[in-house]
Design a protein that fits this description.
Chain lengths: ~425, ~425
């Protein structure tokens, strides 16, 4: 039996659940792998604070570097989050030849390429299943099972908060503000919900998915994002009538056939056909849908957040890193190459548009002419409401985003158009 | 750049697709892994037969042993299927220190433990992602990501043929015989559909899933199975009215807490709540739903058969085995321990029952009394039809299968009961 000792940085929601889970599963893991894993040191902000899942308070320290430099520590688990000091600490651990398991999406979405290179240079593992889609095995299948696959597109519901809000709106007719307040009461949304509802959290995950799926260097700042705060009950209702659901999605597309690979990475609300597998992913669940050239359509579904599911992902990585360490090997990501980021204007898809208009004869003809002038062709149109409440709802055929934006610009200057209410991309059709 | 040569046994639907896919992806794989993979020898039944995807017919031979013993061959891919000579050939390859990738579910479901042990003894990989659920990454996540997880249950739609037939019956009101004939026309079902519709194919996959999920030795003969050929349009229609769908499922449950682990492995049609993630898995798609103690609910969805998706799974394994070979390591399954197989009589779940009765006063009281006598309590009852066509449809509360069987036995001796039409287990509620 090989004994390996883990140095744990951070013992909050996920860190505590991890310490707990490892203790429960220690014997079973030893029986299946021949490795006896234990937590040997835990860096926390306050040593005095009582912690249910830490049986031995002597393990606690506020000195993060000491945990990494402790000669007994074989493996480091980083769960403190944020960019600094996590970046410095992970770099230190890798430099000391100690494998690192992290769930830090913000760090990887901004400094991933540098850290993967440091891991490779030191011949040790840097594993991060917990950083994207919580407990769902996604990074390992992408890195290993699908490394030979020509992936065309990855589309994910990777933020549980926004999925919960949109599910409440769709299933109970809740208004956005009420659904958000409910999510906050349940602890699904923070007091300041910006990171979730404006797509920053999903954007960081999209950057990591893009890097792994296409072997390119993509950072959070490369991701186009739109939030869900402008989605109205009318949009939700119209989506249902047209046999769609509205979901907040992260979409990653890549073309690695040319000399310089090109990727498109974006996060936005989308209309998804009701019979698409992602459409029935509800509440705070996450799912990632992968379109591969040979494998066809794949979907991975599960809990994208929460202490226990995330701790499960961390534990899977820890066991993997431990097995690799014993075997004297490490998982390779390969060098991430520079990619051209495709601008959102170059996106081609269908669009849902809701436009508030004056309700008088000839308006539709005027509006339709503007669409036609910009090479945007209309698949279906429906008028909702009358008089001052009249709205025209369009679904376009597939067209370029730049043309749709030019159409909207021109429509705004029409007397008969009062307001552009919504513009939602249609995906998965 | 490391060069590795593959010996391919079998060049049918999957073998051909694999040779093709490897050729297409060879450069991309080399760029990402540093390994240049090529097929160096192919064993086939007929060398004369024209093959589109074999660019160099000189690689073809009918001598399977020569392919394995060829000193240029570093890795063996076995896609001939069946038990012998596949078993002998894989054993030969492993003994020669050559990693093996196989999609042979029949072999692994009957001789898995022996072959995994041979791989371990020789320190080489035996990988078999393609044997269960085709292109869906399932075995690797189970073996690696979830090795530390306390898995409670795995429930899968792992046979595309029966899922296609049941989807046709549910969505288009087709009768079983017509749906089967349609599946045969499309090539989804064989001329003799027994292996699919009676659950033998799914049973072999269930045995493999049970072995990997719980680290126990389970063979195909341990699996309880019922086919779908007795499912009627009435069952399908009643399921819909009661907010269920009928799916053919493989269910694997384990309890590894005692000295001897206990597993239940069964394949049968089941009523699944319409809002369960498995319920919307339609047509020939497969999906595997995993219930873990820490990770919660997970589902993996995709193509369970077909040349390209299965070839994608084979390619993922080949790259993994190649990377391991270069690193001088191999994946470990661990020793599979003996388990007690829980008999179907000990199953506890809810049941759907359809009973043809004489339509006269007092019959329900008689029937209900028999249920009560056997400690089977009724959750809902509904009468369908009148006179000679009268049917009583029951859904029970959760109860023991042995008690339900005793109930049916006693009901058959009642004058007022003409026929037991259906008994379908309710799962996922």
């Amino acid at each position: 039996m090989t004994q390996l000792t883990i140095g744990l940085l951070g013992c909050g929601n996920v860190g505590g659940a991890f310490a707990d889970l490892l203790e429960k599963r220690r014997d079973a893991i030893a029986a299946r792998t021949g490795i006896d894993l234990r937590v040997g040191a835990i860096a926390v902000r306050s040593v005095a604070k009582h912690r249910d899942h830490v049986s031995n308070p002597d393990l606690l320290t506020t000195d993060t570097r000491a945990v990494i430099e402790n000669p007994e520590v074989d493996l480091v688990v980083e769960l403190i989050g944020g960019i600094e000091p996590a970046r410095e600490l992970i770099t230190l651990a890798l430099g000391a030849g100690k494998p690192v398991v992290t769930g830090n999406k913000e760090l990887l979405a901004n400094h991933g390429a540098e850290l993967y290179a440091a891991a490779a240079a030191n011949g040790v593992d840097l594993l991060f299943e917990a950083a994207v889609a919580g407990g769902i095995p996604l990074i390992r299948p992408l890195r290993e099972s699908l490394v030979g696959e020509d992936v065309a597109r990855v589309m994910g519901i990777v933020n549980g908060t926004t999925n919960y809000i949109l599910t409440q709106m769709a299933q109970h007719g809740a208004a956005y503000a009420d659904a958000l307040a409910g999510a906050q009461q349940l602890g699904y949304a923070e007091a300041d919900p910006t990171a979730d509802v404006e797509g920053y959290d999903a954007g960081a995950k999209a950057a990591i998915i893009a890097s792994i799926a296409f072997g390119v260097s993509v950072v959070a700042g490369d991701v186009y994002h739109e939030g869900i705060s402008s989605i109205t009950s009318t949009d939700i209702e119209m989506a249902k009538r047209l046999d769609y659901v509205i979901k907040a999605v992260a979409v990653v597309e890549g073309d690695t056939s040319g000399d310089t690979p090109e990727v498109a990475v974006r996060v936005h609300p989308a209309m998804i056909p009701a019979d698409h597998p992602l459409a029935s992913v509800n509440d705070s669940f996450n799912a990632v849908f992968i379109e591969g050239n040979a494998v066809g359509d794949l979907m991975f579904y599960g809990r994208g957040a929460g202490g226990d599911p995330t701790a499960s992902a961390v534990l899977g990585d820890v066991i993997d890193a431990a097995l690799n360490k014993v075997a004297g090997t490490s998982a390779k990501i390969g060098e991430l190459v520079k990619a051209r980021i495709r601008p959102i204007d170059d996106l081609t898809c269908a669009y849902y548009l809701s436009i508030e208009v004056a309700d008088r004869p000839g308006v539709l003809a005027q509006v339709a002419a503007v669409f036609g002038d910009h090479a945007v062709s209309i698949q279906s149109m429906e008028q909702r409401g009358l008089g001052d409440d009249a709205e025209l709802i369009f679904i376009t055929h597939s067209c370029r985003e730049a043309d749709v934006r030019a159409t909207l610009h021109a429509l705004r200057s029409l007397d008969s158009v009062n307001h552009i209410n919504s513009l939602i991309r249609v995906v998965g059709a």
